[in-house]
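Course assignment 3, question 2. Fill in each field.
Student: A.L.
Task: Predict the tertiary structure for the chain below.
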Amino acid sequence: MKILSLGVGMLLVGSLLGQVVSSDTTSNAPLNSAQNILSGNGAKKITIGGYGQIDYNQPLNDTASANGKMDVHRMVILVGYKFNERVQFVTEVELEHVKEVYVEQAFINYKISQPINFRAGLMLIPMGIINEYHEPTTYNGVERPNLDGKIAPTTWREMGAGFTGNIDGLSLKYQAYVFNGFLGYDGGGKFRGSDGFRKGRQKGAESTFNSPNFSGKLDFYGIKGLKIGAAGYFGKSQTTAYDGVLNSDTEALAAADSTVIGVSMFGLDARYQYKNLFLRAQLLSATMTNVKEYNAFTGSDLGSAMLGYYGEVGYDVLSIFKKDAKEKVILFGRYEFYDTHSSTTEGTDKNDSFARTDLTFGVTYKVSNGAAFKADYQIFDNEMENNISSRQINLGVGVWF
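Answer field:
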């Protein structure tokens, strides 16, 4: 009740002091919620915003009945405070499935000069599209692409610090941060073949720290309507196994070493809008080291490499009949492949059910820039022998303000 009361209070204050003005993320100056605040699109001191997603998922089964699921998937309160022209604070507080509360972002931004900003706190890892641009009206489909949940585990955020800014002369945005890594072991293994690193996200909650991880991204925005990104993430997973181990105890240190894996992840993404045509694509690749030792010690089935990609096409069909329409009816299709067992080590059998293909077809009806009704049909398949495809219909509502 205290959290809800606080949220209502902040929204009332926000109605007096200003709100976030959302922007098209495929423009030459792509902005997400946090960037809108930092760019000054809100109030002079306090800015209040938010986004929400309400879903209905109905599996389709030819041989048996299947219950659908209705869910207030997430409701997020976004707050920004401007101390002065150089110093700002941004935070997101998220309620998932009505009962789970998370802090999604909480960082201070210090503007050193026009192209150089220093940030510190709980921040999003710049990898792919959805992890940074996850407001529900910025993407097609009721649910986020599964690639972004299995390999780059959206919403992926950790504690860290670093630099970011725009080099306008080169049409480049850069980000370079040092973060704590995934927690791979806390008395048991956290990584597994089915969803890779997802269970290892620490989310800023009393995060264990052993060694720093580096994350960086470059975005090019020099062609109107086009944004291309290249990202990298490198480091080691964190573990509680070193706590209390004597430096002279070589056997215990070796056992603790077995709970750590090395992670190298690369990502490429592109978004393009030409008039009423919308295109986007993404590629993610991750390789891991010390996996054989990790699986043997923890009993896990983590793969030594993961690979995934998707391509999506959308078109605003309403523009055919009404060129000056403020609303949009976007028909879209997306092909998605992701394999969390792209490669495995000795002692771990490759699981073909982890090589998955998703086909998604649907419509996004944007009744305003920050409100949309969504519907789609999905076909899920994998490479396991004698696999039978599964199907699902999704309906949803997305808002962002």
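Instructor remarks: The chain has one domain: 2-400. The domain at 2-400 is CATH 2.40.160.10 (Porin).
Grade: pending
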